[in-house]
Amino acid sequence: MKIAIGSDHGGFMLKEKMIPYLKRKGHVVLDVGCFSQEPCDYPQYAFDVAKLVGRRKADRGIAICKSGIGNSIVANKVRGSRAALCYNIAQAKSSRQHNDANILVIGAAYTDKAIAKRMLSVWLKTKALGGRHSRRVKQITRLERKAKI
């Protein structure tokens, strides 16, 4: 699977731990930055992840910042992006099953490395349930088109 990943300085250390983990699992990783702990602004990195996913240049995306809230807001502005801010494994699994989330947003200040890896593993393996959930995802897609986002 091709996975886009990005963070601001608040998520940099966690991002740097996730990249080798993803590569060991056989994924191709597209790192959009940031590339240090030097203070920076999160919007561009979240946007770059979402753009790659929305344009189908990446199968999935991961966006990490301190709280996860800003990245979630930005990523969900991009057509085709369904970003889910998750703090635990149950949320990560549900975001895939019920919402077919294609971007996992992680708040580095609230998620340690071990939980992040477990969330990511479950999130990558979990399939969308389809049925009524698929109908709702299609509604989201229609609303995106209607809003011309």
Written account of the structure:
With 149 residues, the chain is of the alpha/beta class. The chain has helices spanning 12-24, 43-54, 69-75, 89-99, 113-125, 132-147; strands at residues 2-7, 28-31, 60-65, 83-85, 103-107. The protein has 6 helices and 5 strands. The chain has a single domain (2-147), classed as Ribose 5-phosphate Isomerase B, Chain: A. The mean pLDDT is 95. The longest helix is centred in the last third of the chain and has 16 residues, at 132-147. α4 links the parallel β4 (83-85) and β5.
Taking pLDDT < 50 over at least 5 consecutive residues as the criterion, the unreliable ranges are none
Structural class: alpha/beta
Order of helices and strands: EHEHEHEHEHH
Write out the strand line-up for the largest beta sheet, numbering strands in chain order.
Answer: 2-1-3-5-4
- Find the CATH topology: Ribose 5-phosphate Isomerase B, Chain: A
Count of folded domains? 1
Strand-residue proportion: 15-25%
Regarding quaternary structure, what we see is single chain
The best one-word shape is globular
N-to-C CA distance: 27 Å
User: Count of DSSP E strands?
Assistant: 5
> Could you tell me the radius of gyration in angstroms?
14 Å
What would CATH call the architecture?
A: 3-Layer(aba) Sandwich
Please give the share of residues in helix: 40-55%
Average pLDDT reading: 95
Largest sheet features: 5 strands, parallel
CATH class: Alpha Beta
CATH-assigned homologous superfamily: Sugar-phosphate isomerase, RpiB/LacA/LacB
Task: Provide a count of the helices.
Answer: 6
